[in-house]
TrEMBL record:
Domain (EAL): residue spans on this chain: 600-851
Superkingdom of origin organism: Bacteria
Keyword Thylakoid set for record: no
Entry protein name: EAL domain-containing protein
């Protein structure tokens, strides 16, 4: 090789080195800059998300402050308990203080779910429905909710508009008294506004974060930060283009600068390289020095290996041991001469070693690649120990494997601790799925089972059981007796079910039996009859006898009726039918019952919407003086303007509305609208002497009545509240009397409706001291036919005169009725003979036409 060839090759090598260096720099920049900037960008977004989440929390904390003060005030619990120490008007004023410019509504529930107070907000209609406002009451009642609030969230029209439903439990001496619910609409644009580094920011519920792929926290371009104390998150979408742009700009500048900086040294090396070619003897000398250094380094490494606390073993290519450090001998219990030349695998592994791990190690050794694993080994005395093992091949200068180095550490304690944690976790999972009192699977276990059943093709059958008169056992014999009864019922169910069946307690005195595959409704009905007979037997407890019954609801999955996913709900419907039929009954979920349930569900949903949209309206039926037939008042009756079915009477919705606990809301709507219509009639130049409203016990305790009346100018018209006669029998508490006296002091008249239909006592009549009692129309209708009916009405009139109570007869259908009832001494008459219930516009039209007048025999017809 000539001198020119050497120079040319050296220059080419230098140029190649320069280009390689540039390529390496570019690759390093690309591999380092993008991940680094990505991490910095993500860290900044996480900080930003946490800051915004804290901002949302601060907003909610401000909202919660005043509400928590009212919920924790002793007067609030006292008001819900009905002690009488807190005036209704005072409680309403306290609730109104919570209503500001971002409040949609504020409600005060008692523990039974009755709305004691409701204050509308200033921003239009609420977003949350009535059922949603009651979501915390069930948790409060069963003790799962302490003093912590429940915060529900619903997004608005834009990502930064948010509706929050805040439910705060009201406690007294640790016992739940009710719930304060406030709906707030907050504008979070200041907190959630986007910027240059984030593409979008929004507020999401925990359900959305867990269930929706687009909002999943597992995506690298989405950041989620939880809002403390709630179940929703601040979500920030990362601007993915920003990272790439910054990396490109930074990389190009660094690459250009580095390329220029390296150019001069490489050019100098290329130009002067021929002067620094290493002579052969210089290369030999350098080789010897390197060999000496390597020997010294190997000696140091050997010394380090001997001092290491980790076990080190070196084997040849056939896995025969050639060297070990003292830590290996200490760990295994062998002496050095006992292990040298032995097969490493045969020496340490035993019957408990995992075959799959051993196979993985052998395959890696055969392929001459590094491998790591956790394996169970054995000491010389046969005791097992867990080792974290790392095996690395050692290559010679020709690339051939000459040795294997195995480094291991003792992880026995760690594995034992992990086993203890796993056992504890398994035990906790078992406890979480088991009822602590009866040992039966609990509601959570049943829900897990039904999640699996939803995808099963085989139809299943379920029995829903609810104990009858169980509350009497608790009230009469105490909760210890109640627990004893529940334990006995659990034993009866275990003994009465077949293999493959599952019995569970889902709460209180409610149980469920899920029959095994292939068992139908006939078998379920036979089982229910056997269980009912057994449950009816007396249950002894501490020299006492506990007697209970049980109602059963049975549902079998049928592709034409219900599938497995709807079994529990359908069995509930069958159980309710058993309860309504007189208890201690067994009801099968049939197509007719299914149709009734579907119709009832549709009607319930329509009633909820009707309450929110205030589709209920007042109708008026006039009342006339018995002697002169002059108009003396009107009774306000509820009607529902159904969007499809037209005007509906209470018979179409009253019963279900009572079950839904929305009657107080309907009464309040009729009360307010009725007063507004009366005010309009009076402004039109007419004069209504009195307007009366049907009022339940809940409405009599509702302090909204005087407040609503105070905001509507009805002129001299008096307001009367009609109370069913049954109230005289059922409501004899001091609290009820306090509310009646309070209403009477505020100018309300009190009337007894349907008198004679129940079993009211004269003492109860004296205590209530109503202004008017209305004779039930079932007593009025026969007065034209029998003397006995006339004597009964005359007796009621005499009672009224004795106590100074006016008497109204309703159900007056003919002129004969009117004449006889007037002769018997009734003060006021009401019925179809005079007028049917009328809408406000029809009532005004008749007033304007003078069609309410004398209906005595011989007088002109005006109705």
């Amino acid at each position: 090789m000539t001198r020119l060839d050497v120079d040319r090759r050296f220059l080419l090598l230098t140029a190649a080195g320069y280009m390689t260096a540039l390529a390496a720099i570019a690759a390093a920049l690309w591999l380092v800059a993008i991940p680094t900037l990505h991490k910095l960008h993500r860290a900044a977004l996480e900080t930003q998300a946490q800051t915004r989440a804290a901002g949302v929390q601060d907003e909610l904390t401000l909202v919660l402050a005043d509400a928590r003060t009212l919920a924790e005030a002793p007067g609030t619990a006292a008001y819900l308990a009905g002690s009488g120490r807190v005036r209704p008007t005072q409680m309403r004023r306290d609730l109104e203080r919570l209503v500001d410019g971002v409040t949609a509504q504020a409600l005060l529930f008692d523990r039974r779910g009755n709305v004691r107070l409701r204050v509308p907000g200033r921003i239009g209609h609420p977003v949350f429905g009535l059922a949603e406002t009651r979501q915390g009451l069930s948790l409060l009642e069963i003790g799962r909710l302490g003093g912590a609030p429940i915060v529900s969230y619903r997004p608005g029209k834009t990502p930064v508009e948010s509706a929050f439903l805040i439910s705060l439990p009201i406690l007294s001496d640790g016992q739940p008294r009710g719930m304060l619910v406030i709906e707030k609409h907050l504008d979070l644009s200041r907190i959630l506004a986007g910027d240059a580094v984030s593409a979008a920011t929004r507020l999401a519920t925990g359900f959305q974060v867990r269930m929706y792929p687009d909002w999943s926290g597992d995506r690298d371009d989405l950041i989620a930060a939880p809002v403390a104390g709630t179940d929703f998150y601040v979500m920030i979408a990362r601007n993915t283009g920003l990272t790439a742009r910054l990396a490109w700009e930074m990389g190009s500048e660094v690459f250009l600068f580095t390329g220029l900086a390296l150019l001069l040294p490489f050019m100098a090396m290329g130009l002067a390289g021929h002067r620094f070619i290493v002579a052969p003897h210089r290369a030999l000398e350098d080789s010897r020095r390197r060999l000496t250094a390597q020997k010294a380094e190997l000696a140091e490494l050997a010394q380090i290996a001997r001092m290491s606390h980790d076990s080190i073993m070196v084997s040849d290519r056939d896995r025969r041991i050639v060297w070990t450090n003292p830590a290996f001998l200490t760990l295994t219990g062998y002496a050095a001469e006992e292990v040298l030349g032995r097969d490493a695998d045969a020496l340490l592994q035993g019957p408990g070693s995992d075959p799959a791990v051993s196979r993985t190690l052998r395959e890696a050794i055969a392929e001459k690649r590094p491998v790591r694993a956790e394996i169970l080994n054995y000491r010389r005395d046969g005791t097992p120990f867990w080792a974290y093992l790392s095996i690395t091949p050692i290559f010679d200068s020709h690339g051939q494997v000459t040795r294997f180095a195995a480094i291991s550490s003792d992880i026995t304690r760690r594995k034992a601790y992990e086993a203890q944690l796993e056992a504890a976790r398994h035990k906790l999972e078992q406890q979480a799925l088991q009822d602590s009192l009866t040992g039966l699977p609990n509601r959570r276990a049943l829900e897990n089972l039904f999640e699996e059943l939803a995808s099963e093709a085989d139809p299943r059958t379920i029995i829903r059981i609810d104990l009858d008169h169980f509350k009497n056992v608790n009230d009469t014999h105490g909760h210890a007796a109640g627990d004893h009864v529940l334990i006995r019922i659990a034993e009866i169910l275990r003994e009465g079910i077949a293999p493959g069946d599952v019995a569970a307690r889902i709460g209180g005195d409610e149980f469920v039996i899920l029959l095994g595959p292939g068992r139908d409704a006939l078998e379920a009905q036979a089982m229910a009859e056997r269980l009912r007979d057994e449950i009816l037997r007396d249950i002894p407890f501490q020299n006492k006898t506990c007697r209970i019954g049980a109602s059963f609801g049975i549902c079998a999955a049928d592709k034409r009726l219900v599938d497995n996913s709807a079994l529990l709900v359908s069995a509930d419907a069958a159980l309710y039918a058993s309860k309504d039929g007189g208890r201690n009954a067994i009801t099968l979920y049939t197509p007719s019952l299914h149709r009734d349930v579907q119709q009832k569900r549709r009607l319930a949903l329509e009633i909820e919407h009707a309450v929110l949209r205030e589709e209920f309206l007042p109708y008026f039926q006039p009342q006339f003086d018995a002697a002169t037939h002059a108009l003396v008042g009107i009774e306000t009756l509820a009607r529902w303007r159904h969007p499809l079915r037209g005007i509906l009477t209470p018979a179409a919705f009253l019963g279900l509305a009572g079950q839904m606990s929305v009657l107080p809301e309907i009464d309040r709507i009729i009360y307010r609208k009725g007063l507004e219509e009366v005010a309009a009639i009076n402004r039109a130049g007419f004069s209504i002497p009195k307007v009366s409203f049907n009022a339940g016990v809940a409405q009599l305790r509702d302090t909204d009545l005087p407040g609503i009346a105070a905001t509507i100018d009805i002129g001299p018209t008096r307001i009367a509240l009609e109370v069913l006669e049954s109230v005289l029998v059922e409501e004899q508490s001091d609290e009820f009397g306090f509310h009646i006296d309070l209403l009477r002091e505020q100018g309300f008249g009190i009337e007894i409706d349907d008198f004679g239909s129940g079993h009211a006592s004269v003492v109860g009549l004296m205590q209530l001291a109503p202004d008017v009692m209305k004779i039930d129309q079932r007593l009025v209708v026969p007065v034209t036919r029998t003397e006995r009916a006339r004597r009964l009405v005359r007796s009621i009139v005499d009672i009224g005169r004795t106590f100074g109570i006016g008497v109204t007869a309703e159900g007056v259908e003919t002129s004969a009725h009117a004449e006889i009832l007037a002769g018997l001494g009734c003060d006021t008459l009401q019925g179809f003979h005079f007028a049917r219930p009328l809408a406000a516009e029809d009532f005004c039209a008749r007033l304007a036409a003078g069609r309410f007048g004398d209906r005595r025999p011989g007088a002109s017809s005006v109705a």
